[in-house]
Design a protein that fits this description.
alpha+beta, three-stranded antiparallel beta sheet, 5 helices, rod-shaped
């Protein structure tokens, strides 16, 4: 038998003493610091690392999703606010006797101050104005938030 075979424990596998040593989980003589595993060991070393990495990845995905949702909601609120104010400014100009073009220009100026862009501006009736505007989300992949507002006297018959 060679020395290498002796280190592998083959010398003890042939006799009763080797069987007893294997049952007890002891290292073969001559192998200092050899690690042995008891019978039935599942040997799952490192599985906690995989679990922690998975948990961190999940937390990262949820954080990005939450931030994206927050950005979309914020853009929607900004669009509604800017378009509401623009419609009020335009309707005010329309009611004071300005032309539709001048009222829409005034509405566009107010919307611009609210970081919105006017997509359409139409007059409905003599004194009411409908304005449609857009605001970009802070995350470019989300696109633009769109809002529509109408300002002017209440329609007849609604009450």
């Amino acid at each position: 038998m060679t020395w290498l075979a002796h280190l592998g424990g083959e010398a003890f596998a042939q006799g009763r003493r080797g069987d007893r040593l294997r049952e007890l989980g002891s290292a073969a003589p001559g192998r200092r610091g050899a690690r042995t595993r008891p019978q039935g060991c599942r040997c799952d070393g490192g599985s906690a690392t995989v679990g922690v990495v998975g948990a961190i990845a999940l937390l990262l995905v949820l954080t990005v999703a939450g931030l994206s949702l927050g950005s979309a909601v914020l853009a929607s609120h900004r669009a509604r606010s800017a378009v509401d104010l623009a419609a009020l400014a335009g309707a005010s100009a329309l009611m004071s006797g300005d032309s539709l073009a001048l009222a829409c220009a005034r509405a566009a100026g107010v919307a611009r101050r609210g970081d919105a862009a006017i997509a359409s501006c139409t007059a409905a009736g003599g004194d009411s104005l409908t304005v449609r505007g857009e605001v970009s989300a802070s995350i470019p992949l989300l696109g633009r938030a769109v809002a529509t507002a109408r300002a002017g006297p209440a329609a007849r018959g609604s009450g």
